[in-house]
Write a structure and sequence with these properties.
Layout (H helix, E strand, L loop, with lengths): L2 E2 L5 E2 L18 E4 L4 E4 L12 H10 L19 E4 L4 E3 L15 E5 L4 E6 L2 E6 L4 E4 L14 E5 L4 E5 L15 E5 L4 E4 L15 H4 E6 L4 E6 L12 E5 L2
Antiparallel strand pairs: 1-2, 3-4, 4-5, 5-6, 7-8, 8-9, 9-10, 11-12, 12-13, 13-14, 15-16, 16-17
InterPro entries: Gal_Oxase/kelch_b-propeller, Kelch-typ_b-propeller
Protein name: Galactose oxidase-like Early set domain-containing protein
Length: about 250
C-alpha cells in the first residue's frame, strides 16, 4: 500500500516513490544520466488505471490538497523533478522543486546533455532545462522559430555541434500541406531554435498520435550525420515512404 510523504509524493513502505501509469506517450521523454547512472523520465499520465486500483483513487481523493506532480488535476501542487530510477541503489527517486514543473503533453522530449550535466526538455509548456545539481527547472525562452509540431515528434542530440535536432510530428492535428517533414535544431550554446531548411528527399511526417512510436532519430558520431528511421505509415496513411533517411549537418 502507498502513503504520501512530506513532499507530496506517493511512496512505498521503504519511503521510495512509486510510479503508477505515468508514462503514456512518453517515447521521447526517457533518457539516461550517464554521470549519475540514473534513467530519467518525464511523465504524461492517463486515467486508465482507475478501475483497477480503487484504493489509489481513494488515496488521491483523501490527499489531493497536498499531493504533488500527478498531473490531470489529481494534485494541487506541481513542483517536481522528473522521475528518476537509480540503477545503483535499485529504486525510484523524485524530488520536490522550487519552480513549477513545465507542462509536458503526450510525446514531449527529454534529453540528457553530458557537457552541461543538465536535461533539455521541450513540451507543451515550452523549452526548459532541469538541473539535477540544483534540483530545479529553468525556462530557456530561446529565440528563433520553435518547431510547430513538437508533440509526437522525433529528436536526438548532436554532441559535436551542441544541438538538439527535431523532426516535426503530427499531433495535435493541424492543417499542414504535404507529407514531407521539416528539421529544426536547438542550439544549446546560443539558446536559439534554427529552421534548418533541409533539402533533398526529406523523411515523412508520421501518422498522427503514434508518431513518436514509429519514427526514430539518432546522431551517428562515426559518420557525423543524423539518421531518421521511418517504421510506419506517414500522415497520409501511405507505407511507401517507410525507410531510412540521412541528414548531413
Amino acid at each position: 500500500s502507498l502513503t504520501v510523504n512530506k513532499d507530496g509524493f506517493e511512496v512505498n513502505a521503504r519511503g521510495h516513490p512509486v510510479p503508477v501509469a505515468p508514462f503514456v506517450h512518453s517515447y521521447r521523454m526517457i533518457t539516461y544520466d550517464t554521470d549519475r547512472k540514473i534513467f530519467t523520465h518525464m511523465w504524461s499520465p492517463s486515467g486508465y488505471w482507475r478501475k483497477h486500483f480503487p484504493k489509489r483513487v481513494a488515496l488521491i481523493e483523501k490527499h489531493k490538497a497536498r499531493l504533488n506532480g500527478l498531473g490531470r488535476g489529481w494534485s494541487k501542487i506541481n513542483q517536481s523533478s522528473p522521475w528518476m530510477y537509480d540503477t545503483v541503489a535499485g529504486h525510484w527517486r523524485r524530488l520536490k522543486t522550487k519552480s513549477k514543473t513545465p507542462a509536458a503533453g503526450h510525446g514531449a522530449h527529454l534529453i540528457y546533455l553530458p557537457p552541461q550535466k543538465k536535461f533539455f526538455f521541450l513540451g507543451k509548456g515550452g523549452t526548459h532545462m532541469y538541473d539535477p545539481a540544483k534540483n530545479d527547472w529553468a525556462a530557456l525562452k530561446p529565440t528563433g522559430p520553435r518547431p510547430p509540431q513538437p508533440i509526437d515528434a522525433a529528436s536526438c542530440y548532436d554532441p559535436k555541434r551542441q544541438r538538439v535536432y527535431m523532426a516535426m510530428g503530427s499531433y495535435p492535428k493541424r492543417k499542414i500541406e504535404g507529407v514531407e517533414n521539416r528539421v529544426w535544431a536547438y542550439d544549446i550554446v546560443k539558446n536559439t531554435w534554427i529552421d534548418l531548411k533541409a533539402k533533398g528527399k526529406l523523411p515523412p511526417r508520421p501518422r498522427k498520435v503514434s508518431g513518436s512510436g514509429i519514427t526514430r532519430m539518432h546522431y551517428d558520431s562515426a559518420n557525423d550525420v543524423i539518421v531518421f528511421f521511418s517504421f510506419g505509415a506517414d500522415i497520409s496513411g501511405s507505407l511507401e515512404t517507410q525507410g531510412v533517411y540521412v541528414y548531413s549537418p
